[in-house]
């Protein structure tokens, strides 16, 4: 299914000429070789105001980006997993303060890294257990192996967890391995990007009594009509965009070593980064949230999820541990599955306070602005997402196109 414009820009409070600046600006990224291609969708009040595609979804095969191109969402999977968890929360299946060891006993006696090296780490017992809200807010102490910023992520890599998981390991085994590794910090005492949402996926399947992908399919994807959103595609699927990485000279190189993972059904479906989708499908997910749950979740649940849940109500820059994340830290809080704008001034990038968002490792990004009733999503396939300032530039250009 493709995505089409539903309302004229002027009727939705946009200047059409200023929206055209977006296309011209990001076209330069393709014309000079930094990106292969991209897709952009902007909607207000749930109606698409601007949709554009540019460049190639597969440059080597000379295949253009089209409205129904498939994109690896990577960490834009996390909000979907978080919504899945909150569906169970609304049913009273758990409380956010419950220790996750109630369902995942391997996390009962966690150790926290204190000092030492990857060859000789010294740990101390966790003061309190990892709780469900710690997973949703990335305050659990779990990390990522690919960060290369701490002894703990080096231990993840030694255990076989870098950009992916151990071959053949299912979600239960993956979580047992994570539980055997030390935490980066005491639960609730810091903020660190990591495998928390993957563990949340395992928690969902144990609580629900069905496989995690099945729960996501029946409780989110099917009700929203997200028919193109999957955990893998066939090797001959022509709609899937190729994955690229930057070169030192400002160009790009095809990254099939990682990109081809999309062609195999995962043994451990990653709640933190496993889905493939289209702009039209993800638009349905964003519109549901903009409409305060639209029957999938209660309005007050969405409002609760998109508040700042960090301890003390502080910004991420007060709690972050120095690793990579799909967001800036200044003026930003974190809710239950989303970064939340508290004050746009410290980051020097305009956004409405209360806006919530996230992005993916291949430079995809979305945000939802409930005050301006705005959803924006940008899709491309360049990893890592920190290569170019696509996201702040996107915000700068979108908000400057609003006229009302």
What does this structure look like?
There is one protein chain. It is built from twelve helices and 14 strands. The chain has 404 residues and is of the alpha+beta class. Helix 1 (16-31) packs antiparallel against helix 12 (390-399), helix 2 (78-90) runs parallel beside helix 6 and helix 2 packs across helix 7. The protein is globular. The two termini are 31 Å apart. Keywords: Hydrolase. It comes from Dactylosporangium vinaceum.
First-to-last CA distance: 31 Å
Shape: globular
> How much of the polypeptide forms β-strand, as a percent range?
15-25%
Secondary structural class: alpha+beta
Q: Helical region count?
A: 12
Radius of gyration from the CA trace?
Answer: 20 Å
Mean pLDDT: 96
Number of strands: 14
Strand order of the biggest β-sheet: 3-2-1-14-13-12-11-10
Return the string of H and E elements: HEEEEHEEHHHHHEEHEHHHEEEEEH
Helix content: 25-40%
* Biggest pleated sheet: 8 strands, antiparallel
Residue stretches low in confidence (pLDDT < 50, at least 5 long) are none
Keywords: Hydrolase
Enzyme class: hydrolase
Protein name: Serine hydrolase domain-containing protein
GO molecular function: hydrolase activity
Quick summary:
The chain has 404 residues and is α+β, with helices and mostly antiparallel strands. It has helices at residues 16-31, 78-90, 132-137, 151-158, 171-179, 196-208, 212-224, 256-259, 279-290, 299-305, 316-319, 390-399; strands at 37-44, 47-58, 63-64, 71-72, 111-116, 121-125, 244-246, 252-254, 276-277, 332-334, 339-341, 356-359, 365-369, 374-379.
């Amino acid at each position: 299914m493709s995505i089409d414009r539903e309302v004229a820009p002027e009727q939705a409070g946009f200047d059409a000429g200023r929206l055209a600046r977006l296309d011209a600006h990001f076209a330069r990224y393709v014309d000079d070789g930094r990106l292969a291609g991209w897709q952009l969708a902007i909607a207000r009040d749930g109606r698409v105001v601007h949709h554009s595609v540019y460049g190639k979804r597969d440059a080597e095969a000379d295949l253009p980006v089209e409205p129904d191109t498939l994109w690896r969402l990577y960490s834009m999977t996390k909000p979907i997993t978080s919504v899945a968890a909150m569906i169970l929360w609304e049913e009273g299946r758990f409380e956010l303060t419950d220790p996750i060891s109630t369902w995942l006993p391997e996390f009962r006696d966690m150790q926290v890294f204190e000092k030492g090296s990857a060859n000789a780490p010294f740990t101390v017992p966790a003061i309190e257990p990892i709780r469900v809200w710690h997973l949703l807010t990335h305050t659990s102490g779990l990390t990522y192996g690919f960060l290369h910023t701490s002894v703990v992520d080096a231990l993840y890599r030694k255990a076989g967890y870098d950009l992916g998981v151990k071959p053949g390991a299912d979600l239960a085994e993956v979580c047992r391995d994570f539980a055997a590794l030390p935490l980066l910090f005491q639960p609730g005492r810091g903020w660190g990007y990591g495998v928390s949402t993957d563990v949340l996926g395992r928690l969902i399947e144990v609580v629900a009594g069905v496989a995690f992908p099945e729960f996501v399919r029946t409780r989110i994807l099917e009700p929203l009509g997200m028919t193109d959103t999957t955990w893998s595609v066939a090797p001959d699927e022509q709609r899937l965009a190729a994955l690229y990485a930057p070169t030192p000279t400002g160009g790009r190189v095809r990254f099939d070593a990682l990109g081809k993972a999309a062609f195999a059904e995962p043994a451990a479906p990653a709640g933190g980064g496993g889905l493939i989708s289209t702009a039209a499908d993800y638009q349905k997910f964003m519109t549901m949230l903009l409409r305060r749950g639209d029957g999938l979740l209660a309005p007050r649940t969405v409002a609760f999820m998109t508040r700042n849940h960090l301890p003390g109500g502080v910004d991420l820059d007060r709690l972050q541990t120095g690793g990579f994340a799909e967001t800036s830290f200044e003026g930003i809080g974190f809710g239950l599955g989303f970064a939340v704008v508290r004050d746009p001034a410290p980051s020097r990038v305009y956004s409405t306070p209360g806006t919530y968002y996230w992005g993916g490792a291949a430079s995809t990004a979305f945000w939802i602005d409930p005050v301006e009733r705005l959803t924006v999503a940008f899709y491309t396939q360049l990893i890592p997402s920190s290569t170019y300032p696509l996201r702040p530039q996107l915000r700068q250009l979108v908000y400057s196109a609003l006229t009302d």
